[in-house]
């Protein structure tokens, strides 16, 4: 579901948006979005997301992949 959405953004929406905004408007919007992302997710958002995923996996008991990995057989 995400791939068609992303493809449409990349091929239709963002190019059209870029055509209707001036360079200054686009720079202002880009800066505003970057600041909002930093306020919400901090300096290293990937680390924060990974910590959340790790916490969920631990809570569900699926954190240790060794429990789900078959042993090598000779």
Which helices and strands appear, and what pairs or packs with what?
Blueprint: H1 2-20, H2 23-41, H3 45-60
What is the arithmetic mean of pLDDT?
A: 91
The number of helices is 3
Helix content: over 70%
Distance between the first and last residues' Cα: 41 Å
From the structure provided, what is the oligomeric state, counting identical versus distinct chains? Answer: single chain
Tell me the major beta sheet: none
Beta fraction: under 5%
Rg: 20 Å
Coarse morphology: elongated
Structural class: mainly alpha
Strands, total number? 0
Could you explain the architecture of this structure?
Helices cover 73% and strands 0% of the residues. It is elongated, with a radius of gyration of 20 Å. The longest helix is centred in the N-terminal third of the chain and has 19 residues, at 2-20. With 74 residues, it is mainly alpha-helical.
């Amino acid at each position: 579901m995400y791939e068609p959405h992303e493809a449409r953004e990349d091929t239709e929406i963002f190019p059209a948006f870029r055509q209707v905004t001036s360079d200054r408007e686009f720079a202002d919007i880009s800066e505003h979005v970057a600041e909002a992302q930093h306020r919400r997710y901090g300096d290293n958002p990937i680390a924060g997301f990974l910590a959340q995923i790790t916490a969920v996996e631990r809570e569900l008991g699926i954190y240790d992949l060794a429990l789900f990995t078959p042993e090598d057989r000779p």
